[in-house]
Amino acid sequence: MNPWPIGKFVSQAHGTNVLTTPILYSFRRCPYAMRARLAILSSQTSVILREILLRDKAPEFLAVSPSGTVPCLVTQDSVIDESLDVMKWALAQNDPDQLLDMPDAGWDLISETDGSFKQALDRTKYAARYPEQNTDEQRAIAGDFLSRLDQQIDHWLFGHATIADQAILPFVRQFAFIDKACFDAQPWPNLQAWLDRFLISDEFTAIMPKYAKWHAGDIDFHFPNATDAK
């Protein structure tokens, strides 16, 4: 029996083509798209994955995405253009690991990740784009948040894997690889172990296959059971 059910939804997208699964526009290395793929993987829901290059976006993607950003999920009756909303949609279909079983504090951590932490991360990673900002100060702001995460983590953020772990880990990964040696030298043993487990997990491997840039008319790749990933 195929553990990844397909054909549950009918999406109407791009001209006269009628697709039998939702379409996920994604970009492999984008942390927002990574968190969406993690939740879709956990939900055991199949989507058609279309890889978008952010510097050369397909016109079909721009025609359907209100923001022109990934991830963007096209379902039978809606376009979901925010990563956290894609996660909630996926887990509403099926949540076998009870990832939505989480205290309200988890939503607060996700909000802070998407707000002040992501802002500090960008101003550290892409310092040249923000010449008016002090990079050391921005790194310190990010570090304060990561220190609190380290104190929160006991294998997971809330005792078992939750949507918060999936939503936050891709951004911690992005920050860590700005300067991995510096990250590894920080007094954050719980955080570092949490990230290391993620990086060697089957889930991380499953969401990170490389796909060629999608063009209209290309063969459809089904995620998460796509066998044609390169």
How would you explain this protein's 3D organization?
With 230 residues, this protein is an alpha+beta fold. The chain folds into two domains: 11-96 and 207-223, Glutaredoxin (3-Layer(aba) Sandwich), CATH 3.40.30; 104-204, Glutathione S-transferase Yfyf (Class Pi), Chain A, domain 2, CATH 1.20.1050. The protein has helices at residues 31-43, 59-64, 83-93, 104-125, 135-152, 163-176, 180-184, 189-199, 202-207, and strands at 11-12, 18-19, 23-26, 47-51, 72-74, 79-80, 221-223. Strand 3 (23-26), helix 1 (31-43) and strand 4 form a beta-alpha-beta unit. The protein starts with 10 loop residues before the first strand and ends in a 7-residue tail after the last strand.
Q: What is the H-and-E element order?
A: EEEHEHEEHHHHHHHE
CATH class of the largest domain: Alpha Beta
Number of domains: 2
Distance between the termini: 25 Å
Number of DSSP-assigned strands: 7
CATH-wise, what's the superfamily of the largest domain?
A: Glutaredoxin
Report the major sheet.
Answer: 5 strands, mixed
Mean pLDDT: 90
Topology-level CATH name of the largest domain: Glutaredoxin
Biggest sheet, strands in spatial order?
6-5-3-4-7
Helix coverage percent? 40-55%
What is the count of helical runs? 9
